[in-house]
């Protein structure tokens, strides 16, 4: 982690670069945490619908329940720019990629000096 901080503050004012980086990380984490919570709520709704005793209802309610079951049976994925699904796994992959990239850039910069 110290190499990441060194990379962000190398040849730049220490405050703005570091705060900007952690600001972006905080925004991405908040977005993915919110979307993960949304997915968890969706899963709880589908579990509750599966647990209902729908077979005791009248035919009209059974048909409506069948429609709902068809909708919640599909897995909920929230795409970002049609490329990635927004979840906490995306946040973990982003952090790993950022850390690896920062270490590579810092190593290259130190070898050139």
UniProtKB/TrEMBL annotation:
Residue ranges spanning the membrane: these are 17-35
Q: How does it sit in the membrane?
A: Multi-pass membrane protein
Alphabetically ordered keywords of this record: Membrane, Olfaction, Receptor, Sensory transduction, Transducer, Transmembrane, Transmembrane helix
- Give the chief site where it resides: membrane
List localization entries.
Answer: Membrane
What GO terms in the biological process aspect are recorded for it? Answer: sensory perception of smell; signal transduction
**Name listed for the protein in its UniProt record:** Uncharacterized protein
In its UniProt entry, the species of origin is given as Hypothenemus hampei (Coffee berry borer)
Its lineage opens with: Eukaryota, Metazoa, Ecdysozoa, Arthropoda, Hexapoda
